[in-house]
Amino acid sequence: MNAEILTEILGDRLISAEDQPFSTHIVVTADNLLSVCTELHSNPRTQLDYAGDITARDTGKEIILWYRLESMTIGTTLTINVTVPRDEAVVPSVQAIWPGLNWFERECYDMLGIRFEGHPDVDNPELMRILLPEDWEGFPFRKDYVPVFSGNPLHGPQETN
Amino acid sequence: MVNTATTEQRHTVEVNLGPQHPSTHGVLRLLVELDGEIIVSCRPVIGYLHRGLEKMFEKRSYKQTIPFTDRMDYCASLNGNLAICQAIERLGGLQAPERAQYIRVLLCELNRIASHLVFLATYATDIGATTVFLYAFREREKCLDLMECMTGARLTYNYVRPGGIPQDLPDGFENGLNCFLDDLLKALEENDRLLTGNRIFRGRLEGVGVVSPEMAAAYGASGPVARGSGLNYDVRKTAPYEVYDRLEFDVPVYHTGDCMARYLVRIEEMRQSARIIRQCLKDMPAGEIMCKMPKIFKPPIGQAFSRTESPRGELSFYMVSDGTPNPARVHGRTPSFVHLGMLPAMLPGVKIADVIAILGSLDTVLGEVDR
Predict the structure, then answer these.
(1) 3-state secondary structure of B33
(2) Which of A75, A79, A100 sits opposite B220 (nearest CB)?
(3) Which partner for B18 in A88, B22, B29, B133 could form a disulfide, CB atoms 3.0-4.6 Å apart?
(4) What confidence tens digit (pLDDT) does each residue in B10-38 have?
């Protein structure tokens, strides 16, 4: 898999593609992400069957997501960048294709408040939170986050049962 | 315990496993829904050990991030050190001298042995074979002594630096290492007679917690979990780093996908690690151990990504630089986090008594899950 093959497969859904030392890197829009992932997962020339990683960062102006996917059969790495606005950080969920990415999506919500449309817990912030307590307010990895001390040092999740 | 009657005529019981349970090897809570003794669903609750390491990285200089990686996977902290140092090196375009690379590989493999010995000890105890614990920890003690004489610490080494390593091998290290490896291979043989062939042990593990290769790939399993499922995936072979491409070693792969396969992979890996260490000692060239580093390290704007094979699986770091002395974003993809995410798919249909066997076979370290 290289940038050429990807340009051929994806056509105008691609913003840019380049070969980097450790991976092939592409940039797509949030609207195209799901169709691109579905295509690359099933296409015999890419066969991205391995769930790698999702992470995101806040630049202060926008949020940039970084996906990493692998092909066990071909033995290649693909990284995808998706940029979304800070005040409307919504991307489609890809956990139906790679169930292993479920928790990474939850982590991205937890830390940066990105909404993963189509994730089974997307409408339930308490279940979507993964590392922080269920009743935590705010998203700590955003650059404008100011930690607030609740006054209770044992501040933790509400008892559910 | 809470009884919940569902609309169907099925009575399920919700059982809380943890967060304070000796067999979860840390603070992990499993909310398990039971129908009789069969598990219907499972929801792992994590985050009890969350310290926000990734946020802390952003407030530290590049070199200051290294000790934090010790606190992620504390059973194999040197592998964490190496992973983040590789990311920093790629960001700054640095290259460690050859001797340093050999010493790094040697120590990482030694750390892998120590980590797998902890797995062996605790896993046998989980299953009910208490004696193995003592034998395995006897060997691990020798291993930690060696690590201590090299790095000055027993668990949190903080040893690898971007661009090399801070100190060369101490006098007499080679002798001590050779003695330890001889002892280890004998102890592994002893362990095979004591545990691996044991009928009760095999009965508890064989056919339990089966993961198919497709599932392993779709869930992103790596390390012994992937290789126990027949996925021939080892970062040391597929994307060699340091000097792994010059060393000769086999990657054990088992195809049954059950707990026994994952156990056997780890036992065989210890033998392979011993092989790698012997080759490192033999091939190691003399020379520098540290490349030239500026006092204030400011890598150019960009992003870097490093992948290493830690004892638990693929440990990778994604690092973004904005040109300042502090990283703009650091993300660690830790194998234990991924493997715990497999539990909701692995456990339904399994008997409650097998949960500990399955959880133990994943060999998770909660410091790495929660970060």
Answers:
(1) strand
(2) A100
(3) B29
(4) 688 888 887 877 676 778 888 899 888 89
**Per-residue pLDDT tens over the stretch B196-239:** 888 888 988 988 889 999 899 889 899 999 999 988 888 898 88
Nearest chain A residue (CA) to B240: A22
Tokens of A95: 């956990």
Pairwise CB contact (< 8 Å): B331 & A23: no
B233 interaction partners in chain A (CB closer than 8 Å): 50, 72
Taking only the tens place, the pLDDT of each residue in B183-193 is 999 999 988 88
Which percentage of chain B shows pLDDT scores above 70?
96
- Name which of A51, A57, A100 is nearest B320 (Cβ-Cβ): A57
Domains annotated for chain B, with CATH where assigned, are: 11-370 (1.10.645.10)
**B270 backbone dihedrals φ, ψ, rounded to 5°:** -65, -40
Q: Does some domain include residue A139?
A: no
- pLDDT, mean of residues B335-341: 92
3-state secondary structure at position B145: helix
Question: What is the rounded CA–CA span in Å between residue A115 and residue A106?
Answer: 9
Residue to substitute from A47, A130, A135, interface B, most B β-carbons within 10 A = A130
Does A151 have pLDDT greater than 80? Answer: no
A142 domain-assigned: no
Q: Do B219 and A100 touch (CB under 8 A)?
A: yes
Q: Domain containing A113: what range?
A: 3-128
DSSP letter string over B304-352? Answer: EEEEEEETTEEEEEEEEE-SSSSEEEEEEE-HHHHHHTTHHHHSTTSBG
Burial of B10 (0-12, 13-18, 19+ CB in 10 A): exposed
Q: What does the pLDDT look like over B66-82, one tens digit per residue?
A: 999 998 888 889 999 99
Check which CATH number belongs to the domain holding A90 and give it: 3.30.460.80
